[in-house]
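Bench notes, bay 3.
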Amino acid sequence: SRLSQQVAVLEHTPDMVVIGGAIDLIDEDDRTVGETWYASTDADIRSVLAHGVSPFCHPATAIRRTAFDAVGGFRAACELAEDLDLWLRLARIGTLANLDVKVLRYRLHPASASFDRIRTQVASYFRALVLNDPSRSETEQAAALETSDVWALVLSWAPPGEAAATLARSASWYVDWAVAGGYDARVDALKVEAQKEVEAKV
């Protein structure tokens, strides 16, 4: 089983704190509609994290319990982006990996939190990045905890002059998951809304 494979790796690699794997994407009728492969080595996974992208499918991971407890588990402040926040904190204390095999069939459906609460998820995504950025002051991190304004969070993390592009990429990063599930019309509507918001803020 995938869990036995992951546990075996954790047992033989004491400094490893989380291990995931590739996934098949399936629709509501169990039809395979796509697949996702993730970076497998610690160095490559850290490179993905450095760009603000989650390098794991959360349900496909096995996490070392002692490491999970050591970093404080999930944080409510990063609702709907708790996994990215957790990976960033786990990366500080151990190594990360993904198996080069498919370990899960991940169901896509329009009622999921990722689709119905996209704005909250994107805001939490940037909040997690700010909270885990060692170059940010305590004042900046406190401000990130207090606001739910997506634009303010983007401005607090994105490189100078790249805020609009960063927000557009983030919105696409979440809603593009829906394309494989056949929800193109809804995705297009979300992208149009996100782009209008970006243009209004520039």
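Next record in the batch:
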Amino acid sequence: NQTGLGNMSNVDQFGLLNGSNVDQNGRFNKAEVDQIGALNGSEIDQLGRRNDAKVDQLGIGNYSNVNQDGRRNEADVNQFGVGNDSDIDQYGRRNSSTVNQLGFTNEANVLQVGFDNTASILQVGIDNRADQVQFGIDNNATAIQFGEDNYSLQSQAGENNTALAVQLGEGNQSYQLQLGEDNSAVHLQDGQSNLAITSQNG
């Protein structure tokens, strides 16, 4: 469903019972979906101008949802495997989000409200989950997970905050909470059942 001027949507599907829905309202929004396999699902909703969403799915039962409201937001989702789940919500201008999932039943959730925020999630393994929440301007969050049952939460409210979480192993938990300006947090976890919590207010 397209309403407006110069919107573009391209969907390629190969396999069995894949589903894609694209809704665009505005000007010069762009959506691209490639699905190979079975029972993959993609939802893209774009409201505004020059938003860009790209989804690639290879496997079985992967699901992606992208919601963009504003101008020049970018979302890029790559899912390879079985039962991976990604949800990206962007409100504002020039926000960028990338999700790469390789494996089984990984979950990624991104919420961006503001301007020029950047979020990136890489998941390789089984049952990993990463949540990223950004409110403000020029915040940057990166989560990298290799293994099983790892969890990462990155919450940023303010301006120019940076958070990096790297998890290697099983059952690790990382919590990074940033409020204010120019905060920086790095978590590196290697092993099993490690817990790291950083709270910054400044």
